[in-house]
Hints:
Elements: E1 2-6, H1 17-27, E2 33-39, H2 45-52, E3 58-62, H3 72-86, E4 90-94, H4 105-113, E5 117-127, E6 130-135, E7 140-143, E8 147-151, E9 169-172, E10 191-198, E11 207-208, H5 214-224, E12 238-244, H6 249-255, E13 256-262, H7 267-277, E14 281-284, H8 288-301, E15 305-309, E16 311-314, E17 319-325, E18 330-336, E19 342-345, E20 355-359, H9 367-376, E21 380-383, H10 385-389, E22 410-414, H11 420-423, E23 431-435, E24 449-451
Parallel strand pairs: 1-2, 1-4, 2-3, 3-9, 4-8, 5-8, 11-24, 12-13, 12-14, 14-19, 15-19, 20-21, 20-22, 22-23, 23-24
Antiparallel strand pairs: 5-6, 6-7, 10-18, 16-17, 17-18
Amino acid sequence: MKIVVCVKQSADGEINPFDASAYETALGIDGAEITLLSMSPEKTAPFLESLTRLGAKNAVLLCDRAFAGADTLATSYALSLAIKRLCPDFVFCGRQSVDGDTGQVGPSLAVRLGFPLVTNVMSLKSTENGLSYTDRSENGGNISAPAVITLEKSRKLRLPSIRSKVKPVEIFSAGDINADISLCGLKGSPTRVLKTFENDSDRRSCTFISPDKLMWAIEEGLKKGRQKIKPTESASKLKNMWCVGSSPIEFAKTVGENITVIDPDTPEKTAEKIRLGHPDAVLWGSDIKSKALAPQVAALLNTGLCADCTALETDGETLYMYRPACSGNIIAKIRCETKPPMATVRTAEEEQKKIIIGIGYGAREHIAKIKKFAEKINAGIAATRKMVDSDYLPYELQVGLTGKTVNPDVYIAVGISGAVHHIAGIKQSGTVIAINSDKDAPIFKYADYGITADISKTV
């Protein structure tokens, strides 16, 4: 069984954690012949060499000035040409990179290769006819070759043995893979970042209270309720705005005059509807299925897709999209150079609970006690990405930039540091109460009430 594992070096010099999980999963498949594939400058060759010590047969580095500045569409184009040359049975990708957080390359690859796609996979096992899998929603099935599989950050990459040796790294240029230069790098990238600015719009004024005032703060938050924050409307509107599914409608109204909602279908059928309908722009929700379907449709239409947008605006002709970048620390304003521009937008899930307790890594030893407290006050449970990546809580509870968005009347952040990555998923909450023993924790900048005390003595 031949497996190509797509890997990326993160800004810290290490392998992207999601790609590390994909590589470790491949290493765990008996008899697998693994080739690592990466697109980056030649200076990353030693990084790939070090990874081959773990068990890969070899590595391929896509390296050419023509590849510089590629967005996800141009990246998937170059990778797909290299993969066609390598002729694998399966292609493994990490679900996303920790710096880009888009999750678009794997689905785009599937379309370009003409392979079936399975996303959000937690575990894989070899079978007589291919592979069996379990995904993030604890569903499963069988996959036969060829296929593209995107994997969650469910496994840690092993360490090399003392006697292991590096394998060769082969460099492919644009010419080696017969790439059309106009589809590579910046030339082939339809999305353009126009500007970036610091993300401080979600900050609140925190009032610190004693632990015995927690129930009072909760009651105050319930009295206040949650004022639904409507996105700011543009003065001018696009004439023909489309939504795939109904969840992006509120966003569409801010920039569109006439809204058409279509049901999601296969990538091919959805792309054909859009091609024939000539919409000015297309919006998608932020659920798992939309995030898998949208990149496939974008690849079929060869158009740009902006992920996880938190705001939109237009001058009546061009759609401008705003999304968190660099783990949410900055906001990027993006324009698409192709038609129609497409975007997935951050939509809050309808919550049955008026109170949600978010559990962070600092509260990992108090999960049982927090759950008992949640039952007492009829609250739901949420989790940070680190909590689900560390297997303390299931993925369906993850809230944040790469998880779901919640908007309860009261959100209680327990043991959460306050990474902007998590704040992106809770900013629509009515009242935020933060409990953290570290008085300097960033979470207090985004809370209405703060309690600096030991968690075990507070809930």
